[in-house]
Write a sequence for this structure.
């Protein structure tokens, strides 16, 4: 029998009884063929590959990350809780050293869910990676985390949640936002005032193939990880860069995903998007599981690969080489122009967020306390097209006494103002989550 | 009257049953020659019985298991068509294993045609090695057996037996399909020889009634049908005990079954009379297979296990058995000696058992000092308490494992209740003596049924024919496949879940009849029914329907009390 070079946990939750709507890509059938392929390959019989049973996450797990409007029950279903819980099971398996790495093959996905949640955007309600990361920090004392998001869409939710956190390196490789939802993820988006350079966006052009992805990985992502030295590496393993994906324009392959995973060697991988449910997902997922287990993936190939895979055009190659050179200059060679702020200064940010699935518009007004000692107190004033206005304060885990005091003062004064439907205080130093 | 017989590693148990009662029971030492052992055991059972009154015979034998463990399998060639994924050479089995080009995908579409020339070449290599049986397996052949059938068509005239992978099981697992097909082919001649010889011997005695073999899933199949799939009758011993406990007790609610033997204790869980099954299949020697099996767990502790002391003077029982108990002149103290010493068991020589336990007590740290060591009886009680605790610990781990089995729907995650046995049935030789200790260690009532010592033979006697078929229909592809039954039909867009269930039921009845199942005993249950709407570009293209129906393990109606 075959033995894994690296023990691997697999948390499989296809949610065969849940869909966003009957013909929505995020539906019951999505992981059916993946399960067929994984079963038929006999992957679960490989010595060293262990399947785990999911459990639902709790509201408490969600409150480490999100401000749900008006509350968790309103914006989540059982399926979201189980999907996030699947990630927690994967985290437990790795942290208890039962396995060397783990793959949460769960749905629905989460990387478009931001810190404030009014509804569903980009098929996501709660950010399952972030829920897992904050659980890892609280339960196991993990500090430095790197997230490498290889979904075809920019991981704008994860970026939003870790925008101000210098202890979380967020790297997103995706199809250029000028050509695809959600339209963000450009190199200049490099992190908030207290975490400049901790967000790295790699927007690749349409038609990027195997060589382009692997080039970006080897030349930029791996050196960034080497320098950051994270305690744990997480891969948001979206699979919609595949050449047969119906809603994107990239040229990646199952073999390419397997190689990417073998180079990246994430401690935990989490499924994100990917909607070529028949022609891509079965092969990509088999490739990822095998790569995580350290098995030879040279035989992993879509049956239609020779017919349908289009090699990367030369002009695309040149574009990517130039892009990576520029990004290396910014993030590895000190070229990133950092804004200068005063200690204790309050920096404002105003923006609009659109929830495409639920058709909600949100206007946010954010205040951040600039701080050299911690990630800084953060407040968000958020009003949605559903005529609901909330005020939320986030006091980060590492918060210094001054930022803790500022955050509480913001909360108290907002409570006195009477201008909000809901008030939230998320104090990560004490674990207190307060709502009014 | 029913004759039931269970061949164990050291002893063969036989019973004659009538009107829901055990009429006679006997034990025979299991010899080297299985057929001879069977003849002796049958001879003993028929003493004072008119053979004409026997209406049914059922056996649990070790034929296939022994052939696998002793590696006396027939040399068998394998021809495998794989397609992409895991490397097919990783699953190499047998002396002449060949991979040929060709690919069927997960939906049953032919993605790459079979390379007939390489099949011809593989067959000639196999043949030149003097091999006359071949196994043929394709990846996803249960979705579309086209390539297996094509390969068989090319080679069938050159070999005496060709076994096909898709007929083994509807479960998706290519490596296990390879192993199971290999075993079915490699055991074919041996099983045939055994069945022919046994049938002849039974005919001579005038026993011409239906004959069955027990399978590890707790069901039976006709002796004749076992020749087609010999691996399905391997390693049925634990199943014999579970069905025996069911027959003798009824096992309402959630019940833990403990079969305490000489060297091991086997356990299983039964819920409302239905035992839990392995998800995929049984492991036979080094081979993981798709042979349906009850979920059982074995722990190396039994009446004849060797007693030792750990470094801190703690009592260790098993997993080794070094010989018979001291009371029978064996080399080391055993739990059986403890039972004899306490007067719980009246066999062997009690003074030897007493000495054994006294010496064991004296060997404890500081035990040789006067007044420190416990007495022989006190020590015996500690041994049996320890035995109860060790088995209880193992049972808890087994139940935890059962509750940790993955589930794939929200409903199951949130609403499936944890399995928690409310009582236990204890069978096997030392059941009566050990039950009070098990009850104390586990905190649930432990019952010992009548005839607990031959529960295994009772189980073999009363198990009904079981069978299972898997249907997968794809209205977009326009096919419905029931691989086990060799059915492949064209369907149209009107085919739905109801048509699927009735088609599967019909196939199951026919399939079970081939295995000797009588119409009246066919309690069909639907193990799985799933319908997925297949969607491309936001519109429905068809339905993907999956149905698994089976006759679950249970008791024949002649016995039900």
């Amino acid at each position: 029998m075959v033995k894994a070079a690296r023990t691997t946990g697999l948390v499989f939750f296809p949610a065969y009884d849940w869909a966003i709507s009957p013909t929505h890509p995020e539906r019951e059938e999505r992981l059916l063929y993946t399960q067929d392929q994984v079963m038929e390959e006999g992957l679960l019989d490989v010595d060293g590959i262990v399947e785990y049973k999911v459990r639902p996450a709790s509201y408490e797990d969600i409150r480490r990350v999100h401000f749900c409007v008006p509350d968790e029950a309103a914006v989540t279903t059982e399926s979201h809780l189980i999907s996030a819980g699947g990630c927690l099971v994967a985290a437990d398996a790795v942290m208890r050293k039962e396995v060397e790495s783990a793959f949460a093959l769960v749905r629905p996905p989460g990387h478009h869910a931001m810190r404030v949640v009014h509804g569903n955007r980009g098929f996501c309600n709660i950010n399952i990676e972030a829920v897992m990361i904050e659980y890892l920090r609280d339960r196991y004392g993990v500090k430095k985390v790197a997230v490498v998001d290889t979904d075809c869409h920019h991981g704008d939710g994860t970026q939003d949640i870790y925008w101000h956190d210098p202890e979380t390196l967020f790297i997103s490789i995706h199809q250029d936002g000028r050509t695809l939802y959600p339209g963000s993820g450009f190199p200049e988006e490099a992190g908030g005032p207290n975490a400049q350079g901790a967000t790295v966006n790699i927007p690749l052009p349409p038609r990027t193939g195997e060589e382009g992805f692997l080039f970006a990985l080897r030349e930029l992502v791996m050196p960034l990880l080497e320098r950051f030295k994270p305690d744990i590496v997480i891969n948001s393993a979206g699979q919609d860069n595949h050449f047969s994906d119906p809603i994107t324009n990239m040229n990646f392959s199952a073999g390419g995903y397997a190689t990417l995973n073998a180079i990246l060697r994430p401690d935990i991988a989490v499924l994100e998007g990917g909607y070529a449910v028949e022609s891509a997902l079965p092969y990509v997922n088999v490739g990822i599981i095998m790569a995580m287990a350290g098995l030879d993936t040279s035989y992993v190939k879509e049956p239609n690969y020779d017919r349908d895979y289009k090699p990367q055009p030369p002009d695309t190659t040149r574009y990517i080489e130039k892009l990576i050179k520029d990004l290396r200059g910014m993030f590895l060679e000190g070229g990133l122009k950092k804004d200068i702020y005063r200690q204790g200064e309050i920096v404002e940010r105003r923006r609009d967020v659109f929830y495409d699935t639920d058709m909600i518009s949100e206007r946010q007004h954010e205040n951040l306390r600039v701080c050299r000692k911690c990630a800084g107190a953060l407040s968000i004033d958020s009003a949605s097209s559903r005529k609901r206005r909330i005020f939320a304060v986030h006091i980060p885990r590492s918060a210094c006494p001054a930022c803790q005091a500022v955050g509480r003062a913001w909360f108290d004064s907002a409570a006195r103002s009477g201008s909000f439907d809901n008030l939230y205080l998320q104090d990560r130093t004490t674990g207190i989550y307060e709502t009014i | 009257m029913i004759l039931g017989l269970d061949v164990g590693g050291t002893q063969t148990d036989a019973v004659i049953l009538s009107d829901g009662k055990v009429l006679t029971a006997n034990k025979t030492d299991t010899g080297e020659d299985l057929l001879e052992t069977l003849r002796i055991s049958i001879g003993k059972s028929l003493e004072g019985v008119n053979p004409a009154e026997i209406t049914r015979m059922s056996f649990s034998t070790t034929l296939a298991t022994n052939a696998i463990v002793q590696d006396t399998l027939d040399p068998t060639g394998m021809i495998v068509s794989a397609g992409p994924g895991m490397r097919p050479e990783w699953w190499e089995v047998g002396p002449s294993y060949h991979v040929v080009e060709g690919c069927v995908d997960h939906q049953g579409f032919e993605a790459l045609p079979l390379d007939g020339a390489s099949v011809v070449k593989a067959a000639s290599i196999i043949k030149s090695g003097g091999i006359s049986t071949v196994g043929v397996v394709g990846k996803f052949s249960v979705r579309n057996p086209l390539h297996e059938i094509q390969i068989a068509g090319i080679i069938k005239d050159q070999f005496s037996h060709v076994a096909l992978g898709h007929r083994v099981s509807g479960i998706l697992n290519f490596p296990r399909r390879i192993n199971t097909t290999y075993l079915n082919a490699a055991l074919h001649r041996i099983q045939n020889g055994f069945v022919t010889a046994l049938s002849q011997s039974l005919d001579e005695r005038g026993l011409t009634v239906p004959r069955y073999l027990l399978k590890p899933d707790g069901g039976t199949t006709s002796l004749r049908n076992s020749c087609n799939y010999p691996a399905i009758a391997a390693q049925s011993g634990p199943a014999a005990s579970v069905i025996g406990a069911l027959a003798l007790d009824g096992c309402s609610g959630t019940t833990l079954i403990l079969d305490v033997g000489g060297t091991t204790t086997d356990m299983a869980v039964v819920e409302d009379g239905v035992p839990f099954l392995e998800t995929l299949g049984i492991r036979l020697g080094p081979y993981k297979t798709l042979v349906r099996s009850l979920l059982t767990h074995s722990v190396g502790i039994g009446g004849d296990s060797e007693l030792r002391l750990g470094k801190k003077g703690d009592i260790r029982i098993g997993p080794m058995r070094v010989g018979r108990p001291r009371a029978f002149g064996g080399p080391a103290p055993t739990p059986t000696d403890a039972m004899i010493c306490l007067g719980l068991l009246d066999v062997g020589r009690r003074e030897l058992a007493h000495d054994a336990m006294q010496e064991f007590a004296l060997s404890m740290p500081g035990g040789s000092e006067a007044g420190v060591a416990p007495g022989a009886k006190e020590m015996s009680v500690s041994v049996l308490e320890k035995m109860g605790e060790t088995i209880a610990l193992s049972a808890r781990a087994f139940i935890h494992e059962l509750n940790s089995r993955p589930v794939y729907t929200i409903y199951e995650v949130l609403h499936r209740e944890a399995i928690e046995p409310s009582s236990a049935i204890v069978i096997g030789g030392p059941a009566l003596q050990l039950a009070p200790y098990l009850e104390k260690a586990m905190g649930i009532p432990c019952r010992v049924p009548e005839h607990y010592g031959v529960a295994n033979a009772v189980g073999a006697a009363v198990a009904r024919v079981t069978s299972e078929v898997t249907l997968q229909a794809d209205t977009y592809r326009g096919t419905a496949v029931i691989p086990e039954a060799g059915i492949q039909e064209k369907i149209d867009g009107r085919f739905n879940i109801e048509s699927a269930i009735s088609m599967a039921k019909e196939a199951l009845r026919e399939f079970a009849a081939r295995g000797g199942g009588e119409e009246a005993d066919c309690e069909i249950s639907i193990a799985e029914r799933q319908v997925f709407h297949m969607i491309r570009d936001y519109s429905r293209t068809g339905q993907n329907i999956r149905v698994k129906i089976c006759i679950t393990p249970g008791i024949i109606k002649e016995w039900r009390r």
In short: The longest strand of chain A covers residues 3-13. Chain A has a mean pLDDT of 94.
